[in-house]
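Thread: "does anyone have the structure for this chain?"

Original post by V.I.:
We have the sequence but no experimental structure in hand. Need at least a predicted one for the grant figures.
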Amino acid sequence: MTKKQLIVKLALIVSTLGETTEPGQTVPASMIYLALGSNYSEYQAIASVGESVGWIKTTPETVSLTPAGRVKAKAFQALGV
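Reply from O.Q.:
Generated one for you, tokens below.
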């Protein structure tokens, strides 16, 4: 996966979580993993970058948006992502 692909996939995940969850709500991490084609290394890379920039929070079981992630999700949605 290239850096550009990673950024696009992270943007899509953040945008989707912004549309489908409420603040504080989590989704099963397996949903994101499956959406990425069951590619564990890709999931780990995207989750790691998402956490490092402060947009998502992950546990072994869940993924959620941070407040900064919600702001970014709205910006992505305004761009049509």
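V.I.: this helps a lot. The beta strands are 27-28, 56-58, 62-65.
O.Q.: and The two ends are 19 Å apart (CA to CA).
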